[in-house]
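Quiz preparation item.
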């Protein structure tokens, strides 16, 4: 089976490429490198010892994508090619709607024209919005998103559902990720944010490596056990394995299926800082600051459906997540810039 990874040079795409190649699948990566580097593709080849077909292209460029799909003939498309910075999406909403929605429509059109019938989509826990009880279950209503990024995911899920309703041969798997962290155990690939990291774990890693002076913890007055927010952190290789299961599932089923990919176990910001310090023997300087706009006090996944239907279960611990993050960061202090 051949899988086209749109945005496959990015953080989750590159780890998924390793997982798919190790399972014996063929991989084609299409990326415009707007938030990644071609070095990541070379590293995927180094880790797996396998060749990856790769193309530099914007997924919004329909003529080019059609050409690539005719040339490579994939059986399934995984769509990672989104812009994902929540704060930036508030400042640049039109850029986010254009990129995230246009890429989805372009891929669907090219699939229809080349007869590709399986689509796996990188969705997010953000679609559950601000009004649901926790833990989140796939049947809960979507919406009340707090930012344009979240709304793009909500809208793309809707577009994909409508597309599948109109074509009974189409199979769509919506994967709602919780908080992916960690890196491949080789330390060769990992998360490489541009500029100041928005997310917690890359920030901690950059404090550890000396690129940032200290972490600011956004709020310690939440109604949680230590006052800091709690999230469902998932190792990126467990997440990557969820894509392998989803691709296999999409090949044998039709219609839309939705799965949460999380561990079901929340940790607070302070617990993450302490776990990183303990796993790696490094002190992380931090101070408490005000709450960040739009942050919810806590949420985590009910991931029973993925376990039952996809036969998927996370295997990595918080210690693994902290150790593998540091292994990547210490070997690549400036990310992929090192080559
Ligand atoms: P990432 O930025 O590392 O990867 C996205 C990749 O897509 C990058 O390589 C980027 O260059 C590419 N890309 C973006 N727009 C493109 C375009 N128009 N044409 C070609 N390539 C394009 O992000 P990630 O963390 O790997 O996330 C992958 C997907 O998962 C995104 O859709 C994101 O919204 C979603 N997601 C991520 C998280 C998270 O916390 N990392 C959580 C939930 C959902
Ligand atoms: C985690 C916790 C922060 C940075 C985001 C998106 C979500 C999904 C995953 C894509 C929060 C705290 C963070 C820092 C801190 N992405 N924090 N200091 O906000 O749960 O989720 O990424 O779909 O849609 O919103 O993740 O890593 O930014 O924050 O105290 O410098 O760490 O307040 O409690 P978040 P995060």
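Solution:
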């Amino acid at each position: 089976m051949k899988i086209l990874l749109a945005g496959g040079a990015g953080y989750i795409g590159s780890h998924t490429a390793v997982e798919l190649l190790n399972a014996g699948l063929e991989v084609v990566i299409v990326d415009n490198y707007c938030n990644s580097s071609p070095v990541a593709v070379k590293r995927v080849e180094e880790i797996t010892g396998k060749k990856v077909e790769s193309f530099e292209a914007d997924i919004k460029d329909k003529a080019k994508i059609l050409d690539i799909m005719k040339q490579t003939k994939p059986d399934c498309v995984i769509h990672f090619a989104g812009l994902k910075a929540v704060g930036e999406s508030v400042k640049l909403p039109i850029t986010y709607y254009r990129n995230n929605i246009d890429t989805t429509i372009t891929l669907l059109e090219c699939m229809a024209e080349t007869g590709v019938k399986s689509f796996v989509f990188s969705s997010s826990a953000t679609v559950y919005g601000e009004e649901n009880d926790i833990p989140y279950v796939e049947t809960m209503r979507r919406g009340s998103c707090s930012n344009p990024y979240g709304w793009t995911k909500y809208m793309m899920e809707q577009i994909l559902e409508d597309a599948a309703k109109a074509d009974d041969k189409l199979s769509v798997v919506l994967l709602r990720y919780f908080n992916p962290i960690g890196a491949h155990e080789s330390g060769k690939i990992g998360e490489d944010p541009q500029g100041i990291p928005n997310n917690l774990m890359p920030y901690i890693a950059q404090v550890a490596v000396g690129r940032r002076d200290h972490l600011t913890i956004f709020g310690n007055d939440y109604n949680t056990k230590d006052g800091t927010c709690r999230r469902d952190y998932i190792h990126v290789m467990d997440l990557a394995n969820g894509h392998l299961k989803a691709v296999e599932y999409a090949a044998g089923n039709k219609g839309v299926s939705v799965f949460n990919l999380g561990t079901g176990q929340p940790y607070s910001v302070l617990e993450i800082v302490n776990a990183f310090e303990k796993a790696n023997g490094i002190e992380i300087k931090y101070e408490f600051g005000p709450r960040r706009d739009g942050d919810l006090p806590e949420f985590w996944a009910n991931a029973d459906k993925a376990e039952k239907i996809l036969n998927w279960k996370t295997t990595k611990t918080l210690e693994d997540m902290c150790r593998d993050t540091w292994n990547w960061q210490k070997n690549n202090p400036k990310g992929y810039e090192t080559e």
